[in-house]
Amino acid sequence: MIIAETDRLLLSKITVDDASFILELMNSPGWITYIGDRNVKTIEEAAAYIENNQLKVYEAYGFGYYKVQLKDDHLTPIGSFGLLKRDVLDHVDIGFSLLPEYEGKGYGFEGSTAIMHLAKTKFNIKTVCAITLPINKPSIHLLEKLGLSYQKRVKPFDNNEELLLFAKDL
Predict the structure, then answer these.
(1) Pairing outcome for strands 77-84 and 92-98
(2) What pLDDT digit, counting tens, does each position of 145-159 carry?
(3) Tens digits of per-residue pLDDT, 58-75?
(4) DSSP 3-state of 41
(5) Which residue in 80, 144, 151, 147 sits closest to 120, CA to CA?
């Protein structure tokens, strides 16, 4: 189900049929470095991850992460962008991840702009936030380009890792 379209991209709900793509994305260097190893190493584990995470989030909140595909390249999946309501954050969190060969081509801004528009118009979200590692300069740059501003340092998870919190009122 297509949720948004831009000049170059289609964003659609992730399904179990996307397991091989999600496996590739979750084991890409950027994902492992900046998001963390989720220990998903087989197509079966990726399918289970989708069922236990993505699909449940859609049911619970009506939104989640979406598969991002290139319109002019046989709908090649290139990443995942979306919204997540985390118990540890006050506001809905925007996130994005691209396969390495598609980074630095403007897809992150294009797709994330569509997500921000959905957050405001379809999901009636008033404030969007984001968390990132202080070393993740590309993510920080994209968040600032999207109009989110640095708020403070936070330690939202049990691992006690310090992250930067950004936010924007929509």
Answers:
(1) antiparallel
(2) 999 999 999 999 988
(3) 999 999 999 999 999 889
(4) coil
(5) 147
